[in-house]
Design a protein that fits this description.
The complex is a heterodimer of chains A (350) and B (339).
Chain A: E1 4-15, E2 18-30, E3 35-39, H1 46-54, E4 61-64, E5 67-70, E6 73-74, H2 80-86, E7 91-94, H3 98-101, H4 108-119, H5 124-137, H6 143-146, H7 156-168, E8 174-178, H8 186-203, E9 206-211, H9 214-220, E10 223-228, E11 231-237, H10 238-243, H11 248-255, H12 294-298, H13 342-349
Parallel strand pairs in A: 3-9, 3-10, 7-8, 8-9
Antiparallel strand pairs in A: 1-2, 1-4, 1-5, 5-6, 10-11
Chain B: H1 2-29, H2 34-39, H3 46-56, H4 62-74, H5 88-123, H6 128-141, H7 145-157, H8 184-190, H9 196-231, H10 234-241, H11 246-283, H12 289-298, H13 302-330, H14 332-338
Helix pairs in contact in B: 1-13, 5-6, 5-9, 5-11, 5-13, 6-9, 7-9, 7-11, 8-9, 9-11, 10-11, 11-12, 11-13, 12-13, 13-14
Classes of the chains: A alpha/beta (350), B mainly alpha (339).
The structure holds adenosine-5'-triphosphate, iron/sulfur cluster (SF4) and magnesium ion.
């Protein structure tokens, strides 16, 4: 049994313009000590899906799922009180914005000790010793003196370290890091990622890393979920994903990477992720997809196929099956809409 | 920090001068003068009138009077009330404890109800409680003090209705309580009179409610809006992510930040309170500076009025300064920026 198993998670927000489906049928499975990445452009529902898991979404959110199990416990039916025993202890989350995620009115030491006290207890002395140890562990120099510092007295990178210290304080079994480095300098980014990986290895934590950065994914992750407009469009292990992307979105992300170099930001594909008011019919990616056909524009690809596309790529390359692509061995069935589902195309070519 | 205080104090000087000017001219703009009012029905001859005015120093040019007023302030001398023949400063401070006692009770009452109500309304935003509270506080905010005071008196004090609370003064005439601190609640406890404290407390109930109503409404609304904003902050989400109890999340993490705003709001109520005290003390014959000011105005007691206004204004300014301070103390970001 996996440590975490999420099946068919959807999140809808009540907005002034009606319901907005920010997360649409997402799956995630991760084992003890594993590392998964969720990639996708801004607005693709990465944060929302993990916040749903943590129970941190505002009251306007409606969460549905077939299954949401952590360590044998059903997070869907669990009471608030029981959830609080898990959140912050066994599952914790590091947020995108280190500067605003710490309480400005309390010292760093207080905020770290508080979470330990809540879940594990201890005397003030023990808590203080533990906090100092944690601050040292996350690479903060002179941790004793930092205990009494306020968040605004430290840099963003230091704050993110504090955040990490706080969130690993109770030895979580699953750590979710939501773009932990986006708000930081490039040099600091690498250090923080290294720190997270290091912690993951040493402690056998499961780590879900949400990121924009394909380079980071290549270096760190084992399994990669690619998310687009709330939907999980592809899910593969990292090696296969880079070698043989199957979804046109993944393909576009990768081919826009200059020489697929590491450490580069997610390259831009023309257009943006559709929001509440500009959701297309059919496949959500179709306005930006180079392979889109009439079928794509009218019929959404079946959810819960391995690749959410009518025309998945084969061996990481478009085939002559793809519109506008003709290559050697073109069999003339190039144009779209001939009922060849993604699965059939995949099956026929592998 | 010291530089911060000095700058603030320096900024107060022009304000203070403005206040003295307003205080000085306001009472002189009212029709009638002290001699006329003293004489009352009996008219005085113009010669006698001029003689009396000269004796009080009111024959001198206005600028000279104003100047000696300022010089007096610098020497801590606000002149002598000519109705009581006592120094204005002394008159003021004899009555001041009564007002402080009332105002303190009123602000405590206002905060004790307004703060929790605002917090609950924010946490249960959109609920029936929220709507009701906001409705009530809007009413409370626009409540005419005089009308509200009379209404409560009729309801609670009139023997035909509940007959629960006394209507005027600070303590029943049956008790003789020596003035030790000037605060009746404390003095009555210190005295050996049985039942004195009860009586003093009972006398405070209605004035406290009347004076506290507007600040309570303001505190409730401001607390609610401050909390609403803060409950959406990232660090509140972090607090939730730590698995803390709702009590800690709202009562510690959010409230501590909301208090920065709320304390300022409470501090700024001091002006509202002192203004309200004037009416409240008049309704309930509460022997504080509010009632004294009204009496002095009707007697055209120039020195008492101008001195009283300057003192009240100085207190308001000092409290606002104190609030600024507190703001720095509870908001670490401000504290460190300045040092
Ligand atoms: N409270 C909310 N109410 C309504 N819509 C929301 C809310 N929170 C998020 N959304 C919407 O849900 C979508 C997904 O947001 P999310 O924050 O998960 O994106 P993301 O993939 O994390 O992007 P980024 O990389 O910028 O963090 C966005 O379109 C966003 O506007
Ligand atoms: S379904 Fe069509 S539009 Fe959507 S990703 Fe596949 S090819 Fe592109
Ligand atoms: Mg996000």
């Amino acid at each position: 049994m996996s440590l975490l198993e999420i099946r068919n998670l959807s999140v809808e927000f009540e907005t002034a313009h009606g319901l907005f489906r920010a997360v649409d049928s997402v799956d995630l499975e991760i084992d003890q000590g594993e590392m998964a990445a969720i990639v996708g452009e801004s607005g693709s529902g990465k944060s929302v899906s993990m916040l749903a898991l943590m129970g941190l979404l505002p009251w306007t959110a409606r969460i549905t799922a077939d299954r949401m199990n952590f360590d044998g416990k059903d997070l869907l039916t669990i009471s608030q009180k029981e959830r609080r025993k898990i959140i912050g202890k066994d599952i914790s989350m590091i947020f995108q914005e280190p500067m605003t995620s710490l309480n400005p009115c309390f010292t760093v030491g207080y905020q770290i000790m508080e979470v330990i006290k809540e879940h594990l207890g201890g005397t003030r002395k023990e808590l203080e010793a533990r906090a100092i140890e944690l601050l040292g562990l996350v690479g903060i120099p002179a941790p004793e003196s930092r205990l009494r510092a306020f968040p605004h007295q430290m840099s963003g990178g230091m704050n993110q370290r504090v955040m990490i210290a706080m969130m690993i304080a109770c030895n979580p079994r699953l750590l979710i890091a939501d773009e932990p480095t986006t708000a930081l300098d490039v040099t600091i980014q690498a250090q923080i990622l290294e720190l997270l990986q290091d912690l993951q290895h040493k402690r056998g934590m499961a780590l879900v890393l949400i990121t924009h950065d394909m380079g980071v994914v290549a270096e760190t992750a084992e399994v990669v979920n690619v998310q687009y407009a709330g939907q999980q469009v592809e899910r593969q292990n990292v090696v296969d994903l880079f070698a043989k992307p199957q979804h046109p979105y993944t393909y576009a992300l990768l081919s826009a990477l200059p020489e697929r170099a590491t450490g580069k930001r997610l390259p831009s594909i023309p257009g943006v992720v559709p929001g509440l008011l500009d959701r297309p019919t059919g496949c959500l990616f179709n306005p930006r997809c180079q392979f889109a056909t009439d079928k794509c524009r009218s019929t959404p690809p079946a959810l819960h196929s391995k690749v959410l596309c009518h025309y998945p790529l084969v061996d990481g390359k478009p085939t002559n099956n793809h519109p506008g692509v003709s290559g050697p061995g073109s069999s003339g069935q190039g144009s779209s809409g001939q009922g060849s589902s993604g699965q059939e195309a995949l099956g026929g070519n592998v | 920090m010291i530089r911060f205080i000095l700058t603030k104090l320096g900024l107060l000087i022009p304000t203070f001068l403005g206040v003295t000017l307003v205080a000085f001219s306001f009472i002189r703009m009212l029709p009638g003068d002290p001699v006329e009012l003293l004489a009352g029905e009996r008219s005085v001859s113009p010669e006698r009138h001029a003689e009396l005015m000269a004796a009080l120093g009111f024959d001198k040019p206005l600028w000279e009077q104003y100047f000696s007023f300022l010089v007096g302030i610098l020497h801590g001398d606000l002149g002598t009330s000519f109705s009581s023949k006592q120094p204005v400063l002394e008159e003021f401070f004899v009555r001041f404890p009564a007002t402080i006692e009332l105002a303190t009770c009123a602000i405590i009452f206002a905060a004790l109800i307004g703060l929790p109500a605002g917090i609950v309304a924010a946490v249960k935003r959109g609920s029936a409680f929220d709507h009701t509270l906001m409705g009530i506080s809007l009413t409370g905010y626009s409540m005419p003090i005089f009308w509200w005071g009379l209404l409560l008196i009729i309801l609670f004090s009139s023997p035909d209705m509940l007959g629960l609370t006394p209507v005027s003064g600070r303590i029943s005439a049956l008790f003789w309580v020596d003035t030790e601190t000037g605060f009746m609640l404390i003095d009555s406890l210190l005295s050996d009179e049985k039942g004195a404290f009860r009586s003093a407390a009972a006398h405070l109930v209605l004035p406290t409610i009347v004076l506290g109503t507007i600040p309570m409404a303001i505190i409730a609304r401001q607390t609610r809006s401050a909390m609403l904003e803060i409950l959406g902050e990232d660090y509140v989400r972090t607090a939730k992510a730590k698995g803390l109890s709702p009590f800690r999340i709202v009562g510690i993490h959010a409230l501590r930040n909301a208090l920065i705003t709320v304390i300022t709001v409470i501090g700024l109520q001091v002006g509202v309170l002192l203004a309200g005290a004037i009416l409240t003390e008049t309704i309930f014959s509460w022997p504080g500076i509010g009632k004294w000011m009204i009496d002095s105005i009707s007697r055209r007691d120039y020195f008492a009025v101008q001195g009283g206004i300057v003192l009240i204004a100085s207190i308001v300014m000092l409290v606002n300064l104190l609030v600024d301070f507190m703001y720095g103390l509870i908001n670490p970001r401000i504290l460190h920026r300045r040092s």
